[in-house]
Structure formats: structure tokens, C-alpha cells
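anyone seen this seq b4? input:
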Amino acid sequence: MTRVCFVGSPDVNVQYELLSRDTARAALSTYQIYDPFENSLAVDTVSVGAAVSLCNDLNWYLVRFVDHVLVMEPSISGEEWLSRRLAEAVRDAEIRPEETKERLAVYGVEDGRLVEPMYVTRRPDGSIPSYDLRDVAETVVVRVADSEFGG
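predicted toks r here
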């Protein structure tokens, strides 16, 4: 199952905004809803294509209420998320899954909320530089497209 996660803007309650709108609620009604991070809404879909399609269906709401769209595809990585743009590139065969590893946004997790990303490239040995923007116990790694690298 491919999980897609919508992380809300700080000034909105993303679950309220998405579930209080008829069109968005209808699009999400067939999915079980999760909240892996503070102010997020996540659902499991059958594929990267279905996750991207759901994002396209919800795009009007996403541009207004969501800061980040993350996609977790277990066949690519069971621990690292893909950005929406990178997931679209994989779906459209513009990039092969094994070519998604190099550019990363590493987010700190503070009180369950994603905080400021640190943009890094994976080291030749496959390791990732330690997050050093804040003192956090947990991080979330998001693979990003070249055009997203650095913000």
C-alpha cells in the first residue's frame, strides 16, 4: 500500500479543512484516515499512481491548506517518503525509483510536528548527515526532486 500524507499549514487544522468540504470529504470517504504527524491527514492507496491521482483530485484544497504532501511507497523505501513532485516523476517514468535516493529534505520532529527541513545529499556510503538545525529526537527523511532541492 502506498501512503499519502497531507501536512497542514501551521495556521489551519488540515483534517477539519479537508473533511468539512463536500468534494474533499467525498474523495477521502473510501479511505481509512491516519495522522502520522501533528496536523496531518494520511490515507493508504493501492499505488503511487493512485496517490498522485488523489492529490490531483484534492489539489484545490492542497494549495490552500497543505504545506507538504508526502508519499510513502514501500517498493521504493519503507522508511523514506517521496515528495509529491518526485512521486509524480516516478509515476510518469521520468525518473526510475532507484534514482530517487540522492537529494533529501530531512525534517526534525518536535512535539509530533515536522519542523524546518535540512537539505542534504546522501553520502557515497549511503548514510545521511545528522540533522543539526534543532535538538530533536526524531527525524523524517523525504526524497525530493532536483527542482525542490534546497527549498
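Residues 2-148 form one domain. The first helix runs from residue 14 to 19. kinda curious what u guys think
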